[in-house]
Amino acid sequence: MDNRKFTEQELIRREKYKNLVEKQQDPFEITEFERNATLKELRTKYENFSKEKLTNLESKEVIKTAGRIKQFREAGKKGAFINIQDQDSDIQLYVRMDEIGEDNFNQFRELDLGDIIGVEGMIMKTDHGELSIRVSKYTLLSKALKPLPDKYSGIQNIEEKYRRRYVDLIMNPEVKKTFQNRSKIIRALQGFLDGQGYMEVETPILQSVKGGAAAKPFKSYFNALDREFTLRVATELHLKRLIVGGFEGVYEIGRLFRNEGMSARHNPEFTTLELYVAFKGLKFLMDITEKIMKECNKAVNNSGKIKYGEHEIDLSKPFKRVHMVDAIKQVVGIDFWQNMSLDEAIKIAKEHNIHVEKHHFSVGHIINLFFEEFVESTIIEPTFIYGQPVEISPLSKRNKENPRFTDRFELFIIGREYANAYAELNNPIEQYNRFEEQLKEIEFGNDEAGEMDIDFIEALEYGLPPTAGLGLGIDRMVMLLTNSDSIKDVLLFPQMKPRE
User: Fold this and answer.
1) Where in the cell is it found (predicted)?
2) Is the pTM higher than 0.85?
3) CATH annotation of 171-319+381-490
């Protein structure tokens, strides 16, 4: 027994459904409806025909199609115009009593907005030139027991828009287009990487050791093994094991899980690309990242110049490449190329109102804080920021010329990070020492630090060739290329707070 409280409109619709059942016309018992054309195919085939040409077609095709009722208006007492939509298009139906019979027509008038129907009929154009189907038969395929929102105001509550995405998709073709474009972007990304000869793989989501990124994990418990596991925060360490195993180019497009806050830019469950290629270095990574961004843009936009919010950027131009220390010097005027003690760096940080943790911070951490505080938001055009300090890059190689920094970059566009890449650290002895430094950070309260992964160390001891690794945020890239304000706009089902 359903004890929910229903609106007056919902009660009326349930009564209509009850009447259908009593007449043995239950739409939910119908298992299929064979279409011979989608609405987009009909428009593509007949849109440019004149009314006269459609009327005089020698062999008229009987159209069988289906869709959801979006508009309904009566044309006198014996006729009606309705609009239906399917996945890609919509079309007008013209229904007359003398075509389908009085009883059927009276039942037809009892249909509601949101009902899904199948129709048969002939293609035509009205006097106003509107492509339409003159219906000779209809079948109710599904009864909408809840009414759709008003077509002009839509879903007013933004939380409900994301929570009831299925209604949002029905009401807003632009929303549906965003997710169709998301699929095109991912297909373009896969096609490009496959074309380079790289292999798509899958790695475990449940992991016994947290690693691959500085992030707080979601924890779970594996009953069969009687031990705690985490949902992966990165795919990195397993993918690099595959390079050790002899594959020379592997990638994964998959979900990551980080137990952090939600905002317009962050969802705790998100999608990334991670790519690892043997025998390649930092310049290769910059070049291929730039190509990926441009190829994905081509899949959904007609120009390299795209708008995002109030900004226009040009993805067709070469991306800028700036060392992190030079970027800080340009914006703030502080020269971190100069060797300085931790006390000197802390003093400079305090002068600029930057909070420094007492325990696990170093000069490298402070350099990164200066970049995040003063530089990141000033970057508009696509820019590779490279040379991150070694202290914040536990899995990347040191730079030969200046071992304080690493062969690593992050891609920034309009103040947001889109990619993180580096020449992978393949020295198992140094990797062990870096993991130990991470363990010290955990002791001092950094719950984002990585854990010791002995199996990964042992994999490196078998020999990892020089390897280039890239991580790219799919959701943020889709936001950029579809001009979407919030990450929730590009996730079909984002995480939401419970209804109050």
Assistant:
1) Cytoplasm
2) yes
3) 3.30.930.10
